[in-house]
Write a structure and sequence with these properties.
It holds the Pfam family ADH_zinc_N_2. The protein is an alpha/beta fold. Helix content is 28%, strand content 29%. 48% of the residues are buried.
């Protein structure tokens, strides 16, 4: 294996229109130790977390910062403590935001957050799934405590705010798979069509009043809400339509305090989902991400859910990644953006 590898990284945090915001680089090839796998990166996907970490700030890096937390590839090396994978295994994963990302030819990742790639998908399609499917899976089944038993979910409703985004696209499918009635929000014809394609039963507009739109569908309240867009903007609307004893989960940070008191009389629960918590804090249940990814791969291979890649931006290089970041920052992305192979 070569001592150096191609990568896309940054030294300064700049607006995406600046050609120095993401650079083509040659960096040392890492080696696998402990429970790390060294993965040959075949395809990647781009997520809002990439643009948030890259967002302009004064900080300057001495060593290049490499982004990228959605990967499909092949195990090239295993650390001496690895037990879950072997060289040659095809894998997919979202990685660890406290470590270097995977916009590089080779990438180190702890095997406990890696899954076997779905057999039925090519690498590009597989790369569209890990971060969003893990986020959706943890939100639904850990935080909202949705049952996996379909009979337990008969008549129960979930509202998914921003159903056409990366997480929403998978969350709709997972929720439908366990028998929930899925209400998704969309505000354009293209996003309406997309969420219906993913399986949403009812679509409402997140720019309009939730309660009155639900009443038009003869729905008074919902058992679960998954907020994937602007938590503080939708806070009072969510408090209004959540059922007594209902649960709300959000993945979107707020820059202003929200009034938890609005949930008190309903004894409603609010929680955050952040997919990188387990790897960042090395939690004792970190291996659940390996287990969830294997479950998701099996669901894909069983045609229970499908990949949500909607744009293929070509080879993995700085120019194409800048285009992908720019599209994500426009807030108009439907589904996922993938890139494949290095030039």
């Amino acid at each position: 294996m070569e001592n150096t590898m191609k990568a896309v990284g940054l030294y300064r945090y700049l607006p995406i229109d600046d050609p120095n915001s993401l650079l083509d680089l040659d960096v040392p090839t890492p080696q696998a130790k402990g429970r790390d796998l060294l993965v040959r990166v075949k395809a990647i996907s781009v997520n809002p977390v990439d643009t948030k970490i890259r967002a302009p700030k004064e900080q300057i890096e001495e060593k290049p910062k490499i982004l990228g937390w959605d990967v499909a590839g092949v195990v090239e090396q295993t650390g001496e403590d690895c037990t879950l994978f072997q060289v040659g295994d095809e894998v997919f994963y979202a990685g660890d935001s406290t470590r270097q990302g995977a916009n590089s030819q080779f990438h180190l990742v702890d095997e406990r957050i890696v899954g076997k790639k779905p057999n039925s998908l090519d690498f590009a399609s597989a790369a569209s799934l890990p971060l969003t499917s893990l986020t959706a899976y943890e939100a639904l089944f850990e935080h909202l405590t949705v049952s996996h038993n379909k009979s337990s979910n008969v008549g129960k409703k979930i509202l998914i705010i921003n159903g056409a985004g990366g997480v929403g696209s998978v969350a709709i499918q997972l929720a439908k798979n366990v028998g929930l009635t899925v209400i998704a929000t969309a505000s354009r014809q293209e996003t309406y069509n997309w969420v219906k394609k993913q399986g949403a039963d009812i679509v409402i507009n997140h720019h309009h009043d939730f309660s009155s739109q639900l009443q038009e569908e003869n729905i008074t309240n919902v058992d679960y809400i998954l907020c994937l867009h602007s938590t503080q903007m939708h806070w009072s609307a969510m408090a209004e339509v959540i059922a007594p004893l209902g649960k709300i989960c959000s993945i979107v940070e707020t820059d202003k305090a929200v009034d938890l008191g609005l949930l008190k009389n309903k004894s409603a629960t609010f929680s955050w989902e952040f997919m990188f918590t387990k790897s960042s804090y090395q939690t004792t249940n970190m291996i659940t991400q390996h287990e969830y990814l294997d479950t998701i791969a099996q669901m894909v291979d069983n045609n229970e859910i499908h990949a949500t890649a909607n744009y293929h931006y070509g080879s993995i290089n700085a120019e194409n990644l800048r285009k992908a970041h720019k599209q994500l920052e426009s807030d108009t992305t439907i589904g996922k953006i993938v890139l494949e192979d290095f030039d």
